[in-house]
Fold these 3 entries.
Entry 1:
Amino acid sequence: MFLSIPIKTSMGTMIKFFKKNRKQLLGQNKVSKYLLYGLGEVILVVIGILIALSINNWNNSKQLSNLEYRLVLELKNDLTETQNELTGNINTLTNIINKSDSIITYLNKVAPEEYDLNEYGINNMTWALFNVKLYPKTIAYENLKSLGIQLVSNDSIRFYITDIFDRRLPRIVLWESAAINSQTNLYNALEQNLSTIKSDNYEYYSLVPFTFTRDSKNLFINRLAILQNDRIALNSLYTDLLDQINILLKLLEKEYFQRNKITKGSQNL
């Protein structure tokens, strides 16, 4: 129990008063008044206990509220970083999808012997074998989960948190793996037709097809189309996830940070 000093002092004084009077009443054989004073002493002790419990509960509630705020602040920072990376991934993947669509359209128009990598553009062809991967920040959520998601008092916020981290992110991992597998299958199927080049715009190497037979061209188109399907699905999941993160960040701002600013402002008045 956490009794404050004034409460302890006043209660101790009153209990001594009751005890002194009970002794006097007992010496005077005034049993009824003795019992009444005894009852008063019991009531006083009960009131003291209830006050102590109330103070204790208030302290615990304040500590939990502070812990919740710190965890939510960490979560907000992690979500903001993931939001920024996700926006970049969506832009990059959209570009990859558009470039790869143009590659498929081009290859469907030309005969294998008419294929000219230099004419089409080496840098354009390198986009065909690119992929992206999201690396979300999850440390704050893991901390929150270990302490108990119920620490977050707002039901809507709790729903969006679990929806993002326990449902949407695992689905994205699966589709990223699917896209990487499709990319690997394309590499393996066309290994003999691929050559290594260094990009003009970036300091890395890429594999691109320099020549095609009719069969290898069709195989490249088919494998690339399968990879495109995985990319399109992944991009849709990225976009949905970004929407959910945006909603959650707005809820966190309204529930915790705007309210906290208002509370601090009113305290300074």
Entry 2:
Amino acid sequence: MTGPAFAEERHQQTAGEERRQPAPAPRRAPVVAPRRAPVVAPRRAPVVAPRRAPVVAARRPPVALVDYGVGNLHSAAKALDRAGADVRLVSTVEAAAGTAALVVPGVGAYGACLAGLGRAGGAEAVAAWIKGGQPVLGICVGMQLLFEGSEEGPVRDGIGAVAGTVRRLPSTVKVPHIGWNGVRVRPGSRLLAGLPEGARFYFVHSYAAEAGDPAVAATCDYGMPFAAAVERDNLFGTQFHPEKSGSNGLALLASFVDEARRA
């Protein structure tokens, strides 16, 4: 088919096809997500730590250490300081006035120590201190001086605050007794409170006090039982050297310093 008839027919087909084409879908408006308000975390109240009560250091009581020409003063002073004492070196017992406690060291022979103490005021001065009620600690021969006398010499005019005589260790053991040894603490001791049974201390001595007096607070066995420590009211003494006895010795000295605080 040609000519106008063909053109008319083609026009009709095209129009029909146009009618059959689907109408375009309507354009959707873009979906816009709603804007979320920013999340603001609630403000926390500042944490205020509780105020601690100020730490008050324990009072360091003044403790007089008698320098009368005998004894290991440096070690004793250092140990007492570590135990909490304000250590004052004094050359006489009289110079200790105003302090809370008195420490009488001692190394060597009983007679030599007693003579040195004589230059520092004598046995009478120490006896008067004890009578006054303030704590006194004798160390090694310083403890032996608290007894009535010693076989070493012999000497009979000790301080006499504790009954009994200092005797030589028996020949069945090696003399002098040097080294660590355990002690048996008698009930009620303030000086040795809290220490375990059999606590060990360092000894250096050839003579020792008898263990029978009620003032004996601890005993040790070395060929015979002897007084390792004495204690009665404000009077204290150790045959061993607490300043050379590690933690046990430091604990003992701390107990003595506590006695000085309470004086």
Entry 3:
Amino acid sequence: MGLKPGIMNNLPISRVAVVLFAIVIAVFGLYHFIDPENLVLFVPSYMPSSHIWVYAVGAVLIIASVSMLMNRQVKMVSYVLALLLITFALAIHLQGYLSLSDKQLRALSFLNMIQGLALACCVLYIGATAKPRAVTTGQTVEQASMAHTAVSL
């Protein structure tokens, strides 16, 4: 039993998932620039220049998103993003879980930590399965992208 012809047969579901993930992290990255005051609250007090950290993380998220959407340097960017997510899970959310006395805030910190670690695992998988996109002489980026998609199927 083969696949029926259709537009979705041209893109594997994994590529669709990566594109959706990239859109989500782009939105979150932009949020770091739109409302940094809301995110400064999560920067640990021992880290100086909290606004700079918020903007830097926003930039990393946007760069990672563009990389995944363009299918360029996905392996490297995925590993950097996974490291960032694991760092946040342990430095921010685990710290909140261990130090907060309010039961609901502790539960929220725990859930955020688990969610961050799960996202890091997903990003590690994206990086581990990323295939470099080659552009040959005389070939446009769009043609190379279609060739890469056809090979991935």
